[in-house]
Amino acid sequence: MFPIRDHNPSERTPYVTYALIAINVIVFLSYWPLFNDEPALAAFFDTWAMRPVEIVNGAEPYTLVTSMFLHGGFMHLAGNMLFLWVFGDNLEDQMGHLPYLGFYLASGVGAAFGQLFADPNSVIPMVGASGAIAGVMGGYLLLFPKAKVDILIIIIVFFKIFPVPAWIMLGLWFAFQLFNGVAADAASGGVAYWAHAGGFIVGVVLALPLWIRLGGSAFWRRTEGHPPHPEAQYDTSSIPSIGRRK
Q1: Burial status of residue 110 (CB atoms within 10 A of its CB: 0-12, 13-18, 19 or more)
Q2: Cβ neighbours for 245, distance < 8 A, ≥ 6 positions apart
Q3: Contact predicate 244/18, CB 8 Å
Q4: Which tens digit of pLDDT belongs to each residue from 55-96?
């Protein structure tokens, strides 16, 4: 299940979202050759990825930030950038460019601490923008719970696009992170589910001041949970690019 677009066109060009995507891609390409040299790749991640045990011991605090711009492979990068592309522009539109950047970075750091609290003695390097993007998703859910999100369902050779409310897609995603965080063996490596869950919660909390400034529950009543402007309409038989309101 992949989100491919939402029906929530932004009013301003999301320069920060574009810049974050570009930086993540450029950083990944800069160490892409190391994937053919496992010892060199391991040494690179050892220096720049976040390892909970090091943070607990007061070492390498910079990795709380650098780790969120690293990825473990092309599909890891592509998936994260897709989610950021779909949900980031609307949050940047509502927050403004610089506040949104601060929100993004704070969500990423909060996500790292979520994984750290779950397994503080882990020596496994943690990489990826997933935690920060989970914060974006949490903020999006708070502001636009009923915004339509088109998801692409792939079952073997079956491909279908379904529009669903954001609260269903994002709620299921969050529940999946919690379930797998509880079920998974944190020491075995793999996906940092608690970083995802932690980033999502931090995103909701950090978006609360904006939600309150917009009117809080009155904002929800006024918009009925939808975007505060006309939603975009798409032909679900195709996958066009997302337009912007003029």
Answers
A1: buried
A2: 9, 10, 11, 229, 230
A3: no
A4: 999 999 999 999 999 999 999 999 999 999 999 999 999 999
